[in-house]
């Protein structure tokens, strides 16, 4: 479970992300401009993770791409467009 700082406009805001949503955020952060797809970063509910992150204020671009192969069709590529950094845990005791 993690605390992150996200830049929204000129302000930094703290968000808390856990579970698969945090996994998706870390994948997006690690992939940079390449972005993530369900094909190359398998997970059962990418659209759900992206939806949850967007509700926290995270800016994620969706690009729709087609693919070939045994099961041709379309998939989404998600690219993180927000400035995000892990927030160090601070004990205020």
Summary, kept brief:
This protein is an alpha+beta fold and 93 residues long.
End-to-end separation in angstroms reads 20 Å
Instruction: Report the order of strands and helices.
Output: EEHHEEE
Mean pLDDT: 91
Q: In DSSP terms, counting alpha (H) and pi (I) runs of 4 or more, how many helices? A: 2
Query: How is the main sheet built?
Result: 3 strands, antiparallel
- Secondary structure category: alpha+beta
Low-pLDDT sequence parts? none
Give the proportion of residues in helices: 10-25%
- Describe the strand arrangement of the main beta sheet, using strand numbers: 2-1-5
Comma- or semicolon-separated keywords:
93 residues, alpha+beta, two-stranded antiparallel sheet, 2 helices, elongated
How would you characterize this protein structure?
This protein is an alpha+beta fold and 93 residues long. 25% of the residues lie in helices and 37% in strands. The chain has two helices and five strands, in the order ββααβββ. The chain has helices spanning 19-31, 46-55; strands spanning 2-8, 11-17, 60-67, 73-80, 83-86. The strands form two sheets. The protein has a three-stranded antiparallel sheet with strand order 2-1-5. It has a two-stranded antiparallel sheet with strand order 3-4.
């Amino acid at each position: 479970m993690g605390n992150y700082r996200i830049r929204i406009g000129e302000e930094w805001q703290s968000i808390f992300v856990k579970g698969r949503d945090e996994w998706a955020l870390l994948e997006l952060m690690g992939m940079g401009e390449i972005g993530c797809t369900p094909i190359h970063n398998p997970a059962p509910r990418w659209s759900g993770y992206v939806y949850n992150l967007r509700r926290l204020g995270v800016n994620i671009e969706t690009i729709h791409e087609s693919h070939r192969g045994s099961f041709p069709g379309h998939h989404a590529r998600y690219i993180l467009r927000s400035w995000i950094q892990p927030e160090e845990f601070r004990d205020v005791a």
